Amino acid sequence: MKKGVTIKDIAKKLHMSVSTVSKALNNDPSISALTSERVKALAQELNYVPNEAARHFKLSRTFTLGLIIPDILDQYYAFAINGVEAVAEQRGYHVILSQSHEDVATEQKIVDVMVRHRVDGVIVSVTKNTVDMQPFRKLLQMGIPVVCIGREPKGGMFDFVTSDNHEGGFAATDFLIKKGHRHIAHLMGPEGMRTSHARYEGYKAALEANGIPFREELVKAVDLTPEGTYRAMEELLQLAEPPTGIFTFKNYITLEALHYLKTQRPELLEKIGFTGFGNLPILHYLDHKPLASIEESSFEIGEEAARILFERMSEKDEEEPTQYHSRQLPCRLVVHDHL
Amino acid sequence: MKKGVTIKDIAKKLHMSVSTVSKALNNDPSISALTSERVKALAQELNYVPNEAARHFKLSRTFTLGLIIPDILDQYYAFAINGVEAVAEQRGYHVILSQSHEDVATEQKIVDVMVRHRVDGVIVSVTKNTVDMQPFRKLLQMGIPVVCIGREPKGGMFDFVTSDNHEGGFAATDFLIKKGHRHIAHLMGPEGMRTSHARYEGYKAALEANGIPFREELVKAVDLTPEGTYRAMEELLQLAEPPTGIFTFKNYITLEALHYLKTQRPELLEKIGFTGFGNLPILHYLDHKPLASIEESSFEIGEEAARILFERMSEKDEEEPTQYHSRQLPCRLVVHDHL
DNA sequence: TTGTAAGCGTTATCAC
DNA sequence: GTGATAACGCTTACAA
């Protein structure tokens, strides 16, 4: 890196002290308008660009948020990232993004890196296998606030923003029922995830509210791999009374379930109605789409998480907070056009 | 930010000087094994984490790459990001990512931010409207190397990594011809982009190689909006001799063209064969897919760009380089299964 | 092999 | 309203 212009250079040229220059640049009210003008003019002329690394160091603040998500290829997260960035940018922060790729060890390494870089706060969607929240507790203890999004951390004790999964599960199931389905399966998320259970409970509640008996064999937990979904579909279709409607945990499960039908049981493709979480743009291009999707506002989740994080960062450094926010943003049921 | 443990703390406890501690931590050979051990042990015990902000400041290097892309929601870029990160991580660098959202003003602001943060190098895929490369030239002048990916910068003079667009255009067109198509249209990219022209030239070359006359009216430039694609399709299908095969500039254009047929001219859906650039995972889930896709290895493009960038960063700071790399990574034609 | 000391660019605290 | 000076945490000649 070539050494750029510093406030020292400006001070020298203007025969002022560096502190005056610094203050002028930071609009300190104790500086006269004239001086301020001259400094800024010269700064402009010399292409002065403040060295953030030096500021961060001096201020013990990096104006940086760490964002940890499982996978950027999942558009759910891509939207969330944008939400976080929107708020961050607005407040003069920037975001460093890392992907855990659903790997717990990687996740921990990322946390380390973020500590080294002294991020001012962290937003994380933990991996589907994350059980031990210790690394994140440590952040809290270091005074670095943490907000979780999407996936609920084990053991609570973290600020947390997600969709209203129960309500969404209810709406998705209820929609199928209102469409006349009576045998409704649920391809639920991994057993280990609280989100899975929330959606599952919504599903059960909708059945109950509509007087439809719950059948255990119609619920299959999948592991978020295509093979897992195929297996679950196979089992469902072998039942004596197979489902005519399926509510899925997530976009990609719907896609894979449809793909399974297309390749293995094309005759059923028109017969089984789907609803599911997630309303990604790609659904628009499918021939066989779900009847309806539960739109999770992941952008807004990102925004809200960032807002909470900023709130935490501005609180004065008491020890760990005693109370944690848990926000559930409403979902929206979107009915898809079918040609 | 709570103040963490510093090497000063370690030095005090061990009755050593900070420089000794620093050297021990950095495996300086001049430090005795014993001392080194003791330092590291205590560092571990105290949970010492080096303050990168301080190091960056001191070293005038941030070990940070700036990555500027139009849109993270486009999986093409998502893969490229992963490629860049893979190489960066391997070398102990991290990446700060920003999206221009195809907006030139935003792009310039991002460049400013990157300068403020003193990134050590920049990888950028310019917006589709970027004409003035001046902001990036300025980076070069400041000694911050720049590598472009995907979209070729106007006026050359930058290191540049992309797919072999000509070859890909040729292969996609040739494939349709070999399938028996004689009337092959090309939904080309924006006129302003060199990439568009390279693919277009490949298309023309394939026609010529196969003795098929080129028909100007079969080529439509689209602006990468859905509406643009619809319009182009409309025009193509109104021709006296409409195309039976269409080669598209990009995934999303294929998707939108198919969507157009689905909604407007479903009877043609099975009649028109598509090939196009991009082989995103989502294609897998489509019923009507292109016959074949030109797989661009965007992950590898990211990797290669990062490698070139590191090479540049390690060159000693002569003024701007006199010669620029221009790498075209081979594409792969992938034939899709059709049920 | 270890210690001393200077300095990276900026801001903050005081004194003037 | 302005300036001198110390300090942030770390690395690195150079001295011992």
From TrEMBL, chains A, B:
<protein>
    <submittedName>
        <fullName>LacI family transcriptional regulator</fullName>
    </submittedName>
</protein>
<dbReference type="Pfam" id="PF00356">
    <property type="entry name" value="LacI"/>
</dbReference>
<keyword id="KW-0238">DNA-binding</keyword>
<keyword id="KW-0804">Transcription</keyword>
<dbReference type="InterPro" id="IPR010982">
    <property type="entry name" value="Lambda_DNA-bd_dom_sf"/>
</dbReference>
<keyword id="KW-0805">Transcription regulation</keyword>
<dbReference type="InterPro" id="IPR028082">
    <property type="entry name" value="Peripla_BP_I"/>
</dbReference>
<feature type="domain" description="HTH lacI-type">
    <location>
        <begin position="5"/>
        <end position="59"/>
    </location>
</feature>
<dbReference type="InterPro" id="IPR025997">
    <property type="entry name" value="SBP_2_dom"/>
</dbReference>
<dbReference type="GO" id="GO:0000976">
    <property type="term" value="F:transcription cis-regulatory region binding"/>
</dbReference>
<dbReference type="Pfam" id="PF13407">
    <property type="entry name" value="Peripla_BP_4"/>
</dbReference>
<dbReference type="InterPro" id="IPR000843">
    <property type="entry name" value="HTH_LacI"/>
</dbReference>
<dbReference type="GO" id="GO:0003700">
    <property type="term" value="F:DNA-binding transcription factor activity"/>
</dbReference>
